Each structure stands twice: as structure tokens, then as C-alpha cells.
Amino acid sequence: MLEEEKPESPIIDYVLEPPKDAKLLGEDFIVYCIDTSGSMSCNIPDSKIGINKTRLDAVKSSILSQIKALKENNPKNKVCIVEFGKVVRIHGDCSNNPTIINEKLLDDYDSLVDIAKQNIAIKDISESFVNIRNRLGKLEEQGCTALGPALLVSTIIASQKKGRIILCTDGCANQGLGDLDRLNDEDKSFYEKLGEEAKKNGVVINLTSIKGCDANLEILSAVSALTQGEIIIIDPVDLQEAFDDLITREIFATNVVISIFLHPAIYIVNQGQSESPSRKRVEFKCYRGFFIWF
């Protein structure tokens, strides 16, 4: 080892390259899975603007604000819209009419997967922003909560690009796969199975639920826990801030394995007594850009 290469302190930080400017980050793929069931029509007071609006209005407003910021700062990002109430609608980038999955198929796992694997138009947000903005404005509350089928479809779509899902819901799944009103083992285990599928394909599922609502989070949370996603219970008037936090915490990689090989004269902190103090293998399910210490 050269004299100038010898460390002069116990811990040394090595920077291979400076952090990238957030505005210059590469492509990201985001699927917004939006609850438009009847309960989303409930009014909420908004002290910030002094008027009442519905839960769905709050969600749409927050998403619109977020994709506007994406268009300005990350124009290569891609956004897909999936809506669920009594049926599931796959809007994609909203450049075409939605693919509608009716009640007859909501309990058919294989059919839902096949539909989600179809070629769905997803352009950069710089091109799709206007179409998404206009389509969001037309979303209306309708009927039951086909949350399970919509989340399955969203997961399959996101799996094709190792994207992330932001699930926005206020109620308990009660239509199709994962119907928690039926309270059987198959529907309860559905969410663990879905979480494993997402994890295998590098998809992160973030769950955002409305404060004070019964969304059976103890069961739903399995999909976020398995994929290292966030679980947020939020007042509707604070949705925008919560969504912003989910987006700005960049996911650089999933299922990361780092193998460290140092010069034999150097050992890794807390590895001094091991058989290979200069070697270490570290695994991360989801790396969001935090510092990693060895």
C-alpha cells in the first residue's frame, strides 16, 4: 500500500461522485391507484380554502399538483392512472379510452393479470400531462370498492418497469379478489401473495388511507410491508404534502446486494473479530438514497 493511501483516521468517507441534481434524475414510473367508490363522495372541511370538498376532490387535487411538479422537474417520468369503484378502469396515460374491467372478472386472478399485461400507452409526463389532468377532472364516485383487483392490475403494470404504486383509499375492499367483507382465508392471504409478487418484481407499494376510515389496514398493510413501501394515514387536507414526500424520497434500487472487498490491512467497522474482517455482504430490499455505514 502506498503511503498516501494509508488511512489517517478510523472512519473515512469515500465519494465516488457527487449526488445527482434531483431535477436530472432518470425515468421513474408511478401508478396512481385511486379509490372512486361511493364513500369518496363524503364532504370534508378545508380550512385552507374555507370551503367543503369531497375526499375524491382532495385526492385529485393532490395528484394534479404532484404530476404538475413532475412535468416541470422530471419530464421523463411516466405516470399511469388506475381507478377503482364497482369496476376497475385502467386509464394508462389517459391518451385513449380506459380499459374497463367489469364485475364478472373481478374474482378471476388470471384474467386480471392478462388484461394488465396488455400494451397500455404510457408516455412521458411531459407529453401526457394535459390528458391526465383532464381525465382526473372527470373521475366520479361510484359504488363498491374493488380494491384488490385494482391493486393486482396496478402491480402487474408497475412490474413491467419496476415502478412504484401510490394507493389512495378510504374504505374497506368489498368487491372481487381480496374482498375483506367475506372474511375468508383466501381473501385475507391475497394481499400477502400480492405483496410477494410485487417484491419479486421490484415494485414498491405505498398505501395512503384517509384518517378515521376503516380500511382494514392490519391486512392491507402487508403489501406495503413486504415491498418496503410507506403506510400513511392522513387527513385529506394534508394529502398533497404526503404525496410529495412519497415522490421526493427517490428509490434508486430494489433488492440490492453489495459485496465489499477491502485491502487485507483494512477491516470493516464491527467486523474486526470475524473470519474475514475485510469482506462483507450487505443486502437492501429498497435503497432510497440514505447513507449506508459499514
Task: Describe the protein's architecture and organization.
The protein has 2 domains: 26-248, Rossmann fold; 252-294, no CATH class. Helices cover 31% and strands 22% of the residues. The chain is built from 7 helices and 11 strands. It has helices at 55-73, 109-116, 125-138, 147-159, 185-200, 217-226, 239-248, and strands at 29-35, 43-46, 51-54, 78-84, 88-92, 99-101, 164-169, 204-210, 231-234, 253-261, 279-287. The two termini are 22 Å apart. The protein has 294 residues and is of the alpha/beta class. The strands form 3 sheets. Strands 6-5-4-1-7-8-9 form a 7-stranded mixed sheet, sandwiched between helices. It has a two-stranded antiparallel ribbon with strand order 2-3. The chain has a two-stranded antiparallel ribbon with strand order 10-11.
Secondary structure layout:
Layout: E1 29-35, E2 43-46, E3 51-54, H1 55-73, E4 78-84, E5 88-92, E6 99-101, H2 109-116, H3 125-138, H4 147-159, E7 164-169, H5 185-200, E8 204-210, H6 217-226, E9 231-234, H7 239-248, E10 253-261, E11 279-287
Helix pairs in contact: 1-3, 1-7, 2-4, 4-5, 5-6
Brief summary:
The chain is α/β, with parallel strands linked by helices. Helices cover 31% and strands 22% of the residues. It is built from 7 helices and 11 strands.
Number of strands: 11
State the CATH topology of the largest domain. Answer: Rossmann fold
CATH architecture of the largest domain: 3-Layer(aba) Sandwich
- Radius of gyration computed on alpha carbons: 22 Å
